[in-house]
Amino acid sequence: MNKLTLIPALIAASLGGAGDDSCCAQVPDARSALETDIPDARIALAVEDEILGGTVTGGGRIEVTSMGGIVTVKGTVDDLLTRKRAIDLAATIKGVRGVIDQLEVLPRRGRSDRRIELDVRQALLRDPATEAHEVDVSVDAGLATLTGTVQSWAEKQLCLEAAYGVPGVLDVVDDLGIKTSAERTDDEIESEVAGRIRNDIWVEDGLLSVEVDQGVVHLRGSVGSLWERNRAERMARVAGVRDVDTDALEVAWWKRSEMRRGRPAEPRSDQAIEEAVELALHLDPRVGPHPPMVDVEDGVAYLRGQVASHAARLAAIRDARNTVGVGRVKEFLVIQPDVEIEDRDLAQDVRGWLLVDPWVGLDPITVGVNRGVVRLSGTVGSHVERRHAEDLAGRVKGVRRVHNHLDVRAPGDDLAGDVEIEQEIESQLFWSPFVAASEIDVSVVDGIATLSGAVESWPEYYAAEKNARDGGARHVINRIRVRHVLPGESEG
């Protein structure tokens, strides 16, 4: 089935977050070449390059075409995780206005439905963020169906993600319900949604409006990328929301300068920033039911208290950093798992999750554990796999920290010279919907990239650094100046 897919990228675990917001909506009419100013052939090549560099494609074959910025991704992949990741990555390319998913999952090895079902159940139980949910699993011919109830839309996405990462799963049917609390008025919902979007550094809301009618959130106006529209939609799914309508929210990267939020007339107070961070932590199920304490002084967010896992710590730091007004984050978090697990058993749990993972299951990874601190060593095939292995280990119940000592044996890495790396970084910057590439200078010496110049905001600063790493830099020295620091933010 062809689907106009409007989903953001995974992990992040990394940049964080994900879920399947696919829909069968009508594909928007193509804009003229004059409006988009980027030929479809170039968009298709950029998307294909991003997918090949950002996923573990294995023996699959992927073909990308574009018409008026509507990208079609078709072919075969070995696992559902790669399929979801490929569609997510397509949304991060400048000029992409919609993605049609025609990828088919053809696993390299057959697995019984019973084995797949057991692995999905184990994936839900291993993760502290999903273990307590009332979720049942059934698998029929590789199709996994999740039923039961969760507390929020965000918790639902974490449960679905657990199933995406199990080998042999061809697709996931979402039959999860969300427990409803007291009825909320449209005004209450609208205020919360508008506040969440306004407080998020990744969504420029200058041309975006929020209206709520009978529990349906209508997002209208313009954003700069498909990824940004997907993020706005996710943030709109707060308690009490029946549905989110983005049909009138266009993707128009050429309007980016008009979308930038204006500087507030009065400096944003530390208290206002603090309240925004506290709300973000409260709404993130990865952080856990007892979020850390937050203090904000001169735009610096201090996180203190206890969290239950390595993944919860990283989620808390990410949520604070993604809040408008926060210049830096300093954390003094103590990781105290809800249950104490013997190192030997914890090592076995981590190995078990890595072994069944479709991306790193065949890699020679050694797991050592000392007092709940996991050390990963060995070799993996790409930087994507390296980050993915650390994310998996950090989400295992009982893990306090993860020290990642994995080496990358990616083919061609040793052959890439400074000139090639520099060119790849410049390409990454050009296609990023978050960065004004012309404002950034790149130099590479011995695989170390130095970025200089000026950008308008912290999202551009962070995105440029990620682009440099994705471009193949072994290390990044970021000397970019943030030109328009919001009142209450600190530079550095």
Report on the architecture of this protein.
The termini are far apart. The protein is α/β, with parallel strands linked by helices. The protein folds into six domains: 3-105, no CATH class; 113-178, Histidine-containing Protein, Chain: A (2-Layer Sandwich); 186-259, 2-Layer Sandwich (Histidine-containing Protein, Chain: A), CATH 3.30.1340; 270-335, 2-Layer Sandwich (Histidine-containing Protein, Chain: A), CATH 3.30.1340.30; 343-408, Histidine-containing Protein, Chain: A (2-Layer Sandwich); 414-482, Histidine-containing Protein, Chain: A (2-Layer Sandwich), CATH 3.30.1340. α2 packs across α3 (80-90), α9 (270-283) packs across α10 (310-321) and α13 (418-431) crosses α14 (458-470). β16 (373-380), α12 and β17 (401-408) form a beta-alpha-beta unit. It has 14 helices and 20 strands.
The shape, in one word, is: globular
Cα-to-Cα separation, first versus last residue: 48 Å
What share of residues are in beta strands?
25-35%
* DSSP, total strands: 20
Main sheet strand line-up: 1-4-3-2
- Report helical residue fraction: 25-40%
List descriptors:
492 residues; alpha/beta; Histidine-containing Protein, Chain: A; 6 domains; four-stranded mixed β-sheet; 27% strand; disordered N terminus; disordered C terminus
Q: Summed up, what is this model?
A:
With 492 residues, the protein is an alpha/beta fold. 33% of the residues lie in helices and 27% in strands.
